[in-house]
Design goal:
About 30% of the residues lie in helices and about 25% in strands. It is an alpha/beta fold. The protein has 2 domains: about 120 residues, Nucleotidyltransferase, domain 5; about 80 residues, Nucleotidyltransferase, domain 5, CATH 3.30.420. The strands form 2 sheets. Strands 3-2-1-4-5 form a 5-stranded mixed beta sheet, with helices on both faces. Strands 8-7-6-9-10 form a 5-stranded mixed beta sheet, with helices on one face. Strand 6 and strand 7 form a beta hairpin. The longest helix has 18 residues. The radius of gyration is 18 Å and the shape is globular.
Length: about 230
C-alpha cells in the first residue's frame, strides 16, 4: 500500500491500495503556523488502522512550495523513516499536483495553464505550464492579487487558470491542494515507480515577501529557502 502525508494544506495521512481505494485516513487537526508532532501521530495512524510497517510499499508527501513549518517536519520525518526502513518515498510538487488534477477532472490532454497557490494575504505563488514542457516546468514566482490581471493579459494564450484566486473567466478551475489531490498524483507516481532519491530530496519552502514598493509584481527573483 501507499501512505500519503499532507503536512501543510489539509494536514492528514491516508493509505491507499494499488486500485486507489482509500484504506484508512486520519486528519491532524493541527495549526499550520504552530505545526504538529508527526511521529506520534504517524504511529497512532498505523495502530488505529492496523497497518504494519511491512505492508507499506512507499510513502508520498508534498515537497512544496508551501509553508515552512509543515514542510520542514514532514520532509524530515519521511527522509528519516525512509532511510531507516528502506521504504521508498515520493515527493510531490504542489503546483504539479494541482495542474494534473485539473487535467484529470477535465478528462483532457495537457494544456497551457497558470497555476496559483496562496502564499499569504492577497498574494500568490504561480507557475506557467506549456503542453510541450509540462514535465520540465520548474520555476515559480509570486505575485500580488492586483498583479494577476496584468499577468493574464501578458499570457493571453493560457487555456486554464487553476487555483484559489476567485472566479476570473470561463478558463478558471478552482482546485485547492489537499489530501485527495495528493492521493491522485501519488498513485500515478507509485504505479510508475517514480521514487525520489532520499539524499537529494529538498523541500521547497516559501516565505512571506516583505515588499512595500510595488503592489503588482512583488518580485520574480526573491530567493527561496531550499
Amino acid at each position: 500500500m501507499l501512505v500519503c502525508i499532507d503536512p501543510c494544506f489539509n494536514p492528514s495521512i491516508s493509505a491507499i491500495d494499488s486500485e486507489k481505494k482509500v484504506l484508512a485516513s486520519m486528519t491532524f487537526g493541527a495549526s499550520k503556523q504552530k505545526g504538529f508532532d508527526l511521529v506520534p501521530f504517524f504511529i497512532q495512524f498505523l495502530e488505529d488502522s492496523k497497518i504494519r510497517q511491512e505492508d507499506i510499499s512507499a510513502i508520498s508527501i508534498y515537497k512544496g512550495p508551501g509553508p515552512y513549518t509543515g514542510l520542514r517536519m514532514g520532509s524530515s520525518f519521511v527522509k528519516g523513516y525512509g532511510m531507516a526502513t528502506g521504504i521508498p518515498i515520493i515527493a510531490i510538487d504542489v503546483l504539479d499536483a494541482i495542474y494534473f488534477e485539473a487535467i484529470r477532472r477535465l478528462h483532457s490532454n495537457k494544456k497551457s495553464a497558470v497555476v496559483f497557490i496562496e502564499g499569504g494575504p492577497e498574494h500568490f505563488y504561480y507557475r506557467i505550464y506549456h503542453p510541450e514542457s509540462v514535465e520540465n516546468a520548474l520555476i515559480f514566482h509570486h505575485i500580488s492579487n492586483e498583479g494577476i490581471e496584468d499577468l493574464l493579459i501578458d499570457n493571453e494564450a493560457i487555456e486554464m487558470i487553476i487555483g484559489p484566486v476567485g472566479q476570473i473567466d470561463h478558463r478558471h478551475i478552482e482546485i485547492i491542494p489537499n489530501a485527495e489531490v495528493l492521493l491522485g498524483i501519488s498513485h500515478e507516481y507509485w504505479m510508475q515507480s517514480r521514487f525520489t532519491t532520499i539524499e537529494s530530496f529538498n523541500p521547497i519552502y516559501f516565505k512571506e515577501p516583505r515588499v512595500t514598493v510595488s503592489k503588482k509584481l512583488l518580485t520574480e527573483n526573491q530567493s527561496l529557502i531550499y
